[in-house]
Design goal:
The complex is a heterotrimer. By secondary structure, chain A is mostly helical. In chain A, 75% of the residues lie in helices and 0% in strands. The longest helix of chain A has 54 residues. About 4% of the residues of chain A have low confidence. The model of chain C has no long low-confidence stretch (mean pLDDT 92). The chains are: A mainly alpha, B alpha/beta, C mainly alpha.
Chain lengths: 253, 217, 222
């Protein structure tokens, strides 16, 4: 992921082209398995197919947020003596968060559609969905902080601290929402019976997780490179500015 | 070790702009240096780099014996910085503000009173909210807050602005006193006549670099 | 460190004492929010009593966010952060001092909102100890999280919109815990009040630890 693109102005390398192709094929296969090959559930019928996107998405969202937090911690505490000043960690944190937010969004949409089919309403204050929506907004805030026009170092630090705050908040949010829904469960709230996952469904779910992971990695690599190109563009502009300041100085001397 | 500021080929970037583009300068103890240069020449940035507020991205910079690449915080407690802003809590009364600043720099409340008197801010104004003061009076309070910290290096950005004639003379006197008692003074000012009266050296910046240096007088 | 923190807090409270923003603007506004909630629930006494705990914390969140905004505007309006960077006061002390200042102002706000909720929503208090403990825990958590997010938005052009966006998701568990704990204290729910109250103390402790460690990164420009 850290390798430099062949050409400075491209985001693809041979490796990521292969990865991209694999991702595409994996998604097509996932569609076939999920929509055609795997059977409908006895209880939930066709709606169960949403599972093959819903479950891998939440896994990717959590995984990406962990990556963001881990990279942010490295950026804050382990970048003093790196030659790039920790930019690598910062870029990785940012691209992972973007992908995480997208997949958290996918989780919410599929979760709500599933809720509509199984509970009859889009939203049921289910502990998992509530936690996900809070995380989704938390990381939207994180991305808002990253988009601010500021010195890259200052912006990176602010974002990294926010990532750490968000990270320590994940278990807090998770447990509090969980307690909320279990300690005070009312009669009306009997969550629809989860389908029993066996055989083909099990393998399809496992495979989908792999396919979505490949897609997410491919996205993160590309976002990382785009961020890097943006930084290169800014650096080149800066070097040109320094050069022009020197020339202006010589011309006037 | 009499060099207070020692810069070699210093490049500093702020807001994506190279505010210093290879600056060489050495300032020794007891000097009073006036910085000149047009808008955007790097005067303010030079002061802020000296104060450790802007990081350097290239070159060597030493301030009061601290290498700014390793440690930009330690020299600060020996430095007084007067920026464009006055660094005042405008809701507070003059005396309350000064007490806080004195305590924050580890000085006594009595030092705060003395500094205010030195700047000609009379007792009558001490219980007045800062927001009711005129621009010139605020500047005086701001300079007094700096005086309280007894800095070894004074960095002043357009300190004469907003001051009346009497105030400017008072400031010059204070800067001369500071220099004669061993402190070093660097101030940015457009106005040449005014400064030639006290500066021991005039340095002109252009495009983030040194353009003219009158040398040590 | 403690002495410096107290110095900062005393300064902030003195600024408040002179400007009277909390008592003059924020407290009346927060009370008004309690009245507006009654409009939203069509003055249904039962609903208001049942929701009193949650509405109280939403009003605290609303008023408290304004106080945090104000606490940092005071620092940025005349370049006072530069003065802090140049002073002997360390970042952890500044964090603790600002948090303490905000805490005391929010307590003051709650001393006005509390009776407001009791009178307007006709609430009966069953468990004073739980009520006070959860108010303390929630306010502590609110203050440290608020200062932590507040400094990130400080001085930015978009601070007024950014601060709530950063703060509310972080505070969501506090709002949840505060509401539930108050409901138990009001005798509307039987169980788990103390679980929720302790959760708020845990949140406060966790974010204090993060703030003490990380505030320096936020204060230092570059």
């Amino acid at each position: 992921m850290t390798q430099v693109p062949d050409s400075r102005h491209m985001t693809a390398t041979t490796a990521t082209r292969v990865l991209g192709t694999v991702a595409l094929v994996a998604v097509v296969l996932m569609g076939l398995l999920g929509l055609v090959v795997s059977p409908a559930d006895v209880v939930q019928g066709q709606a169960v197919r949403m599972l093959y996107l819903h479950v891998p998405s939440i896994w990717i969202a959590y995984g990406a947020f962990v990556l963001t937090s881990f990279s942010s911690a490295l950026f804050l505490f382990r970048s003093r003596h790196r030659h790039d000043g920790g930019r690598h960690h910062d870029r990785l944190a940012g691209s992972a968060a973007e992908v995480g937010v997208v997949f958290a969004g996918v989780t919410l949409v599929t979760g709500m559609l599933w809720g509509r089919v199984t509970w009859g309403t889009y939203w049921q204050w289910d502990a998992r969905l509530t936690t996900t929506v809070l995380l989704f907004v938390t990381y939207l805030g994180y991305l808002a902080l990253r988009r601010l026009p500021a010195d890259p170092v200052i912006r990176g630090r602010r974002a990294a601290v926010m990532a750490l705050i968000s990270f320590v908040n994940v278990p807090i949010v998770h447990f509090s929402v969980d307690w909320w829904r279990t300690l005070h469960q009312k009669a009306s709230l009997s969550v629809g019976r989860r389908p029993e996952i066996t055989g083909e469904m099990y393998w399809t779910l496992l495979y989908s997780t792999l396919a979505v992971t490949i897609v997410a990695s491919w996205l993160i690599v590309h976002r990382y490179r785009v961020i890097r190109l943006e930084e290169l563009r800014d650096e080149e502009a800066l070097e040109a500015l320094i050069a022009s300041r020197l020339r202006e100085d010589e011309a006037q001397a | 070790m009499s060099s207070v500021v020692d810069f070699h080929n210093v490049v500093a970037v702020a807001g994506g702009f190279p505010v210093l583009a290879g600056l060489d300068i050495e300032i020794t103890k007891g000097e009073i240096v006036q910085l000149r240069g047009s808008n955007g020449a790097g005067k303010t940035s030079f002061l802020r780099v000296c104060a450790g507020l802007i990081p350097i991205s290239d070159g060597d910079a030493n301030v009061l014996g601290f290498d700014l690449r390793d440690d930009r915080r330690s020299p600060r407690r020996y430095i007084g910085l007067l920026g464009h802003d006055n660094h005042l809590y405008t809701d507070l009364w003059v005396r309350e503000h000064m007490e806080f600043r004195a305590a924050a720099t580890g000085a006594e409340a009595g030092d705060a009173d003395a500094a205010l008197r030195r700047l000609g801010v009379t007792d009558r104004l001490w219980s007045v909210p800062i927001e009711r003061l005129s621009a010139g009076q605020r500047r005086r309070v701001s300079i007094a807050s700096m005086l309280v910290g007894r800095p070894q290096l004074w960095l002043l950005d357009e300190p004469h602005a907003a001051l009346d004639h009497e105030g400017r003379e008072l400031l010059d006197e204070i800067l001369l006193d500071a220099a004669s008692s061993g402190a070093t003074v660097v101030f940015a000012s457009h106005e040449r006549d005014l400064s030639t009266s006290i500066a021991s050296r005039v340095v002109t910046l252009r495009g983030g670099r040194l353009s003219e240096d009158s040398g040590v007088a | 460190m403690l002495r410096e923190a107290l110095l900062v807090a005393r300064k902030d409270l003195r600024v408040e004492w002179r400007s009277k923003v909390t008592i003059g603007h924020v407290a009346p506004l927060a009370l008004l929010v309690l009245v507006v909630f009654a409009f939203a629930f069509d003055a249904n006494a039962g609903l208001l009593e049942f929701g009193a705990g949650g509405l109280y914390w939403v009003a605290v969140l609303f008023g408290g966010t304004l106080l945090i905004q104000r606490a940092f505007d005071v620092e940025t309006e005349d370049g006072n952060f530069d003065a802090f960077r140049m002073s002997a006061i360390g970042a952890p002390s500044l964090f603790l001092g600002k948090s303490l200042g905000v805490f005391i102002q929010v307590v003051f706000l709650e001393l006005i909102l509390g009776p407001g909720v009791v009178l307007l929503y006709n609430v009966r208090i069953d468990d004073w100890v739980l009520l006070l403990a959860s108010a303390l825990g929630g306010t502590l958590a609110f203050s440290v999280c608020g200062v932590l997010c507040g400094v990130m938005a400080a001085g930015l052009r978009v601070r007024a919109t950014l601060l709530p966006l950063l703060l509310v998701p972080v505070l969501a568990p506090v709002l949840l815990a505060g509401s539930r704990a108050f409901e138990t204290a009001f005798g509307l729910r039987a169980e788990a009040g103390w679980t929720w109250a302790s959760l708020m103390f845990v949140i406060a402790a966790v974010h204090t630890a993060v703030g003490v460690r990380a505030f320096g990164f936020l204060l230092e420009e570059g």
